[in-house]
Specification:
mainly alpha; Cytochrome Bc1 Complex, Chain D, domain 2; 2 domains; 37% helix
Length: 359
């Protein structure tokens, strides 16, 4: 009798081992994502797309997903590389058809502090509007949203992640845009040497400090000994930009080939005006300007010192510099100014695994 009971027991154990555990149920998870931003101002995040752990993760997956492109070879990260502060060091990014883009790729960080639309010309009102445009651009990913949805819908991993994020495994372009917006809003740069200096954790070198003073001091043509480079006129505040579109004197009216903001607003007063970018991580994001014409920071500094061109929409502050013979920076001034700009580099941004390829 004992032998029979023992045999039945062993049989039940074997039978139980053969029955697979049921797959865990995939459910909506609205756990909030805690955005860390140090001493930066409180960001104005979208109320209708609150950051969640699962939403940021889905956006991160999509940001690095090559299925978003026509030939499955390129992702958002192809032109916005983490090691380059989420920018592209090519003058113009090369798309899946081996065609160059029309403008230099803008960096993707601290977008939560941008309040004046997106792209160089501001043609995307919200970050979610910007998120999908490269997919359908023939010079970039050259794919259709319908094809992307079809490809992603054939992947159980994505269906599960859309369920965790939105409560349903149905994949739509609107959901993709919201997830990409969440990830891009989560990419924050706030740990540069400049931030450490502001927090009283380090001291600048003599050259860096002279550069900081030059950067922050207004241009004064009447008292040259008190005059600075007045960089904060355009690149001020905690994010080193001003949420404006400006003409910085790259070309005369006759030489302008890209109308910039005018293409969006239709206003002649916006001709050759472009979104003022953040100078954070400027060391990592060459080449410079909307058309990538300057390869080095030295060229950029020389432009503002004595290379500004007159035009009908030139910023008044830069027109004053032009009319009074330039900033008149010495070679040491230029070295100091560059050394200060290098303090804006955030090594933590380019090494942070939270922003890296999840695959």
């Amino acid at each position: 009798m004992n032998k029979l009971i023992y045999t039945l027991f062993i049989g039940l154990v074997i039978l139980g081992a053969c029955i697979e555990d049921p797959k865990p149920t995939i459910e909506l998870d609205e756990s909030p994502y805690v955005l860390e931003y140090g001493a930066l101002p409180i960001p104005d995040l979208p109320l209708d797309n609150a950051l969640t752990i699962q939403g940021v993760q889905l956006g991160r997956m999509l940001f690095y997903e090559t299925l978003l492109s026509k030939d499955n070879s390129q992702s958002c990260a192809s032109c916005h590389s983490q090691q380059d502060a989420f920018s592209d060091t090519l003058q113009f990014s090369i798309g899946v058809e081996d065609l160059p883009g029309k403008r230099q790729a803008m960096p993707v960080f601290n977008l939560a502090w941008h309040n004046n639309e997106f792209f160089w010309d501001g043609r995307a009102n919200l970050l979610r509007d910007q998120a999908l445009k490269p997919i359908e651009d023939p010079l970039e990913m050259n794919e259709t949203l319908d094809n992307v949805i079809l490809k992603l819908s054939n992947t159980q991993e994505y269906k599960d992640q859309f369920t965790r994020t939105f409560g349903s495994d149905e994949i739509t372009s609107d959901k993709m845009a919201l997830a990409l917006e969440q990830f891009m809003l989560s990419v924050v740069s706030y740990e540069s040497r400049y931030d450490q200096y502001k927090a009283g954790q380090i001291a600048f070198t003599e050259s860096e400090e002279r550069g900081r003073i030059l950067y922050e001091t207004e241009y004064n043509p009447f008292f040259p000994e008190l005059s600075g480079a007045d960089c904060v006129h355009c690149h001020g505040g905690a994010n080193f930009e001003n949420d404006q579109y400006m003409n910085n004197g790259l070309d005369t009216d006759d030489d302008i080939t890209d109308e910039g903001r005018e293409l969006v607003t239709g206003l002649s007063s916006d001709k050759a005006k472009f979104k003022v970018p953040s100078l954070r991580n400027i060391e990592l994001t060459p080449p410079y300007m909307h058309d990538g014409r300057f390869k080095t920071l030295e060229e950029v500094i020389d432009h503002y010192d004595n290379g500004i061109h007159p035009s009908s929409t030139l910023d008044p502050a830069l027109l004053q510099v032009l009319d009074n013979g330039g900033l008149k920076l010495t070679e040491q001034d230029k070295i100091d100014l560059k050394n200060f700009l290098l303090t804006l580099t955030d090594e933590q941004l380019v090494q942070n695994p939270t922003y890296s390829d999840p695959f």
